[in-house]
Amino acid sequence: MATVVPVVLGLLALVDAGFAGFRAAVGRNALIRKRSYHLLAARRGLVGGAIGLGLVALLIVATLGCSADPAARYGELVRAGTRMLQVLVPFAALVVASLAAYWLLPMRESTFVILVGLGPFTLIRPTVVLGATVWSVAGSSDWLAWAVAIAAATGVLAVEPVVHRRWYLDPV
Fold first, then answer.
1. For the chain, what percent of residues have pLDDT higher than 90?
2. H helices present in 1-114, as ranges
3. 172 is a domain residue
4. Any domain includes 110
5. Non-local CB neighbours of 16 within 8 Å, separated by 6+ positions
6. In this predicted model, what pLDDT tens digit does every residue of 90-141 receive, in sequence order?
7. Is 148 buried (19+), middle (13-18) or exposed (0-12) by CB count in 10 A?
């Protein structure tokens, strides 16, 4: 669990960042063939997410390096990450199921999936991230767990607006 939890959290954050980059660019291009445009947007989101993830990792490494008992502090971070995954994994599973339904179903049904699944999931995403952050630090007295959870949530939620403002403010 000591390595699985941070790896899963990191992968979730990077996948979310790619989708955030995509969302930042959607509706900004009137071209018919947008595949390269959307892939570039997803890469930009992924890079933004990787930068945020790197800053969180730097915070963890610097603090654990100066800690008197790094194993105990890391254990607390893993417990907080496990609690965070208890919220994020079910939400991610619902999103993946909605995406699969969108891609696999005929046009009418895939439109319905957007209306009842992907659209609302995008709207409640910040609330889910906030809830996962609060749940992850519930009962924790370690300031590092709080700092990492808040920094990670801020980084995840900042990708889309930063990418949007940097590259996609004006329509093409």
1. 79
2. 4-25, 35-65, 70-104, 107-113
3. no
4. yes
5. 49, 156, 159
6. 999 999 999 999 899 998 998 888 888 888 999 999 999 999 999 999 988 8
7. buried
- Give the total number of structural domains in the chain: 1
Rg for the chain (alpha carbons), in Å?
Answer: 18
> CB atoms < 10 A from the CB of 94, how many?
14
What contacts 120, CB < 8 A, 6 or more positions away?
none
Residue 24 lies in a domain: yes
**pTM over cut 0.85:** yes
Domain encompassing residue 21: 4-167
Q: Which residue has the higher pLDDT, 140 or 56?
A: 56
Say if 150 falls within a structural domain: yes
Please provide the DSSP assignment of 94-117 as one string: HHHHHHHHHHHS-HHHHHHHIIII
